[in-house]
Design a protein that fits this description.
The protein is built from 16 helices and 15 strands. By secondary structure, it is of the alpha/beta class. The chain has 3 domains: about 100 residues, Double Stranded RNA Binding Domain; about 35 residues, no CATH class; about 300 residues, pyruvate-formate lyase- activating enzyme, CATH 3.80.30. The structure holds iron/sulfur cluster.
Length: about 500
Amino acid sequence: MKLILDKNISKYYLQTLCLLFFPGAKFSETEVVTPDTPVVEVTLKNEDDGAVCTATVTIGDKSVSRTHKEMYDHLPKNKTENMAANKAFFSAAEAFFGYTPPWGILTGVRPTKIVLDYLNEGMTKDQTVKELRKRYLLYPKKAILATDIARNESKIIKRYPLDTCSIYISIPFCPTRCSYCSFVSFTTKKLLALIPAYLEALKLELSLIAKQIKETGFKLKTIYIGGGTPTTLNENQLEDLLSYIDKLFDTSTLDEFTLEAGRPDTITEKKLQSAVNHNVTRISINPQSLNNYVLQEIDRCHTAEMFFKAFETARRVGVPCINTDLIIGLPADDIESYSDTLEKIIDLAPENITAHTFCVKRSADILKGGRDIFARENFEVSKCVDYTQIMTKKSGYIPYYMYRQKNAKANLENVGYCKKGTEGLYNILMMEEIHSIFAAGAGAVTKFVGERNVKIERIFNPKYPYEYLEQDREKAFEETRKIMDGFFVKG
Ligand code: SF4
């Protein structure tokens, strides 16, 4: 795809917007144009009171142009110019394809961050919805969804000042690989053999984190064990890790302790009993779909029956809060089969339901062989997303957190729903960057938050378990400690 932009227009943001209409496009300014090459040209003219941009979208002999003027009223000049360019392109592409992306020109991962800022400025719900519509061109239902979530979040966030913190523990192993997965998860026999050494290194890192939290006076509020699939650990390994965590931190005083069990094929009664014995309050059991042919299509090595059994066991051993993850838009799924899954899940009454829109990165196995699962326009998926919202509301759930991903089908969102008072706290704290998160394990990212939206520092652990194992843990943590000291002393 060829982009010809005025020099004052940000290439990065416009490219992100182009992906809404041209999924998976590659960009070039010098590409030789063939009749199939999409060409986007944006010109800019500054007037006394605003920036005027004209965007033209051309493929072969079809061409559509639109002009937008953004007034110099609320943003710095360069941001106003870019806003004019983005809106001009959006309306030209909308006219070219006859398709309107539901989130307008808002492309970030965390839409509710902007909404929280509006609410903090004192805007009412109606004013916030109006502003999202005007500034970012959101569909009304998306503006209302984001505003409702942010309003609920703002009540929870107040309970977590900057001297509180969370811990994330990464278990990047899975028993087998699902075909849509692009996560760095270790599944081969040789790599799964790293688990015992990995757990020792992880325990050492956790002990260093515990010492650091104690010395700095942070109040630990939530722990999240995520993956991969943490229940890939066998019963003894999981019991050993949980009892180690229990000894290091007073888990009985936590507001939330999540174990993302994930795949039903890894769950046993003994593992769930260990979790409950060590004060785990929330477990994710993720069917993704309850249609066995859909599960087969995505190489998920479990059946719907295995999910029901795992769910029943979790209830029997007394897990206080169960989350179930679903994916909307999976290959071989359609509105009838998805609705059937959703209704069966609602009948089980889990405390949390997280509905993701199907999203794959280019590296996923499912795309090998040129299979195209990206759809610019996908009414089925939109209907499933809407149906989820309607049915959860009818059944007493509220949307409590959300995020978006690039390449999601029909550019739609992921939403966590909960029964009132059972919000997944870590999800909110992490997504809205409310307080510091110490992270342990391969691929984990520690995040220090000194001031929301303003002062945030991230420290990345090595991505792969073998790199993590090669690292001198104490030396690596010493670096983290130094960064932390500098970060919080600088003021
Ligand atoms: S369970 Fe999740 S992380 Fe593991 S292979 Fe499947 S999609 Fe990837």
